[in-house]
Structure formats: C-alpha cells, structure tokens
Design a protein that fits this description.
The protein has helices at residues 2-9, 17-21, 26-33, 48-57, 77-89, 109-115; strands spanning 41-43, 63-68, 94-102, 124-130. With 138 residues, it is α/β, with parallel strands linked by helices. Helix 4 (48-57) runs parallel beside helix 5.
Length: 138
C-alpha cells in the first residue's frame, strides 16, 4: 500500500501532507482514515486535537512518542500537559519514546507520571539534550 510507505518515511508534524491526501477523493480519504498503521506516531508539537485523533485512528497499535521540549515556551505548557495526559492514559501502547530536552531540564510532574506508568511494550527509550545558547536555567 502506497500510504504505508509514506507513513514509514514521514511525520504528521513535519509534513501534514497525510491530512492533505485525505482531501484527494473519497477513496483516498477512507484508505487513510481507516489505516491505523498511518497513525502511530505522537509528537509534542501536535495540538491536543490532533493527538486525540492520532490515538483514535491508531486503534490499539503500538505507539511511538517523539517529545521535543527544547524550544518550548510557557504558552505551550497547557497543551503539552494535555497531550501528556492522553499519552499516559495509553502508556501500555507505547513502543518507543524519544525525548529531546534542554540541557538543564528537570522532569516535571506530568513527564514523571508518564515515565512511571505501566509500559509493558516499551522497547526503546531515548533521551537527547539540546544545548541552546538562549536557554536560561532556573
């Protein structure tokens, strides 16, 4: 299936083309919407609405979480908290987590809750530190 090849090489956050492809025609829309394997990656720059859609459309397939808060500002914290809550509720489905955080990052309560949750299918946990010139540690 051509959409499966697309899913392996793309990300909704980097390229929202998957949503664009659903508008080509009804056949493509149905093929994309009803292909759970296309909806298995959650990213920190999704809106809560998109994250919820990904969780629904992925059915019960394993999930990958890509969490990049290196450039996050305070205005995004409410949305990030909401997404983390949704992910924590689906933690048993997590297969991989990749986190990019500021160099002096300390996990907040929501991240700790996620990392302490039940993740029996977790195969990979990766953390990277981002060294930014403008970041001020408090």
């Amino acid at each position: 299936m051509i959409f499966a090849a697309y899913a392996e090489s793309s990300s909704l956050a980097d390229n929202p083309c998957l949503f664009d492809l659903t508008t080509v025609n009804k056949l493509w829309h149905n093929a994309i919407v009803h292909s759970p394997q296309l909806w298995t990656v959650l990213e920190s720059d999704f809106t809560p609405k998109i994250a919820k859609l990904v969780l629904q459309r992925s059915k019960n397939l394993p999930l990958s979480l890509i969490w990049d808060t290196a450039d996050c500002d305070e205005s995004e914290s409410k949305e990030l908290k909401e997404i983390l809550e949704m992910v924590a509720q689906n933690s048993t489905r997590l297969q991989s987590i990749k986190m990019t955080v500021p160099e002096c990052w300390k996990p907040n309560r929501d991240i700790r809750r996620l990392l302490e949750s039940n993740m029996p299918n977790l195969e990979k946990l990766e953390q990277q530190c981002s060294y930014t010139k403008h970041f001020v540690c408090k």
